[in-house]
């Protein structure tokens, strides 16, 4: 006959470990692969976005300022300044002023 003592009753039952210990039964085996692919795609998209932003900023910085920007008065003043320094002759000054005033 098996005698059961008090210590046997209070002791928790012995649980045998699973043969595949460390494997979560509620998560499919492909989860790790899918998660790795998702993380890789996010990292690549982030790097692509950063490179694209850097390229766009550098291109914009290297682009010369558009000619003819500003108010009509500032453009006329620039033409007069160029004429005063000798960069434009009388005909070029008159043509530039006509072109600026023609954009009314």
UniProtKB/TrEMBL annotation:
<feature type="transmembrane region" description="Helical">
    <location>
        <begin position="33"/>
        <end position="57"/>
    </location>
</feature>
<keyword id="KW-0812">Transmembrane</keyword>
<keyword id="KW-1133">Transmembrane helix</keyword>
<protein>
    <recommendedName>
        <fullName>SHOCT domain-containing protein</fullName>
    </recommendedName>
</protein>
<keyword id="KW-0472">Membrane</keyword>
